[in-house]
Amino acid sequence: MAPLIILSVCVSALAQAPSSGGGASNQAATGFRSGVRAPANIGFAVNVSPDQQAMTVIFDNLVEEVPLARKGAAGTLDQTASRTKVFTLEVPYATDQRSVKMTMDLRGFASADGDASVKLIAHAGDTTTVVDVLETSQSRRGDAAKLKGKTKEALLSAREPLKGVSTDFLKRIEFTVQAHAAKPVCQITLILLAEHDTDTADSGGAVVMVDSLDLSLAGAGQGKYKP
Questions:
Q1: End-to-end CA distance of the chain, in Å?
Q2: Per-residue pLDDT tens digits for 190-204
Q3: With b meaning 16 or more CB within 10 Å and e meaning fewer, what string describes 86-124?
Q4: Residue 169 sits in which domain range?
Q5: Total domain count for the chain?
Q6: CB under 8 Å to 71, separation ≥6 — which residues?
Q7: SS3 state at 26
Q8: Parallel, antiparallel, or unpaired: how do β-strands 206-217 and 99-112 relate?
Q9: Which residues have CB under 8 Å from 157's CB, separation 6+?
Q10: Is residue 205 part of a domain?
Q11: pLDDT tens, position by position, 135-183
């Protein structure tokens, strides 16, 4: 009889215990979850605002370049037509809505000699944008580009200066992500392209780098980022 009495007491206690599912799910319904991931050998640091509505990611080696083509005894050296780097950042978040609007500010530096060009393609959520980095020195809101990291200084000190067009850039992109899972992830893919004309013996070099990105929720109550 003793085992039956103990079992009855346990069942009664479980029946009277408050459910932990409702309250916990409501608290976790809005917010970015921890564990920003980048499946590549790109160094980065993440900082989340105190209200968890925005975050900043600073990169230390998200850069692509082609070298200056040089003449040699056997012809033209360093005749690489183009180089491309594809980088994906995965930002976990939480929300109680089926879709969330976000705003992303991309900051970086670009430079290209004659017969060379650079491009940046950004894909996030439902939006794919080709950024003309040599002309996009301000966001749509008119903010001037102001880099947050130190990659530009390190890059310029380690390479021969380019003689063409150089500029810091800032591009604002708005997009919507769909929450298909219980723990959704905002996936951001950046494609950096640097190329020059291989038909020109003296074609110049080019470099494009992403210094940092700011990610924020476009509306109140949609979600929060977590450190």
A1: 53
A2: 999 998 877 776 677
A3: ebebebbbbbeeeebbbbbbbbbbbbbbebbbbbbebbb
A4: 30-217
A5: 1
A6: 77, 201, 202
A7: helix
A8: antiparallel
A9: none
A10: yes
A11: 877 777 777 788 888 888 888 887 776 778 889 999 999 999 988 888 8
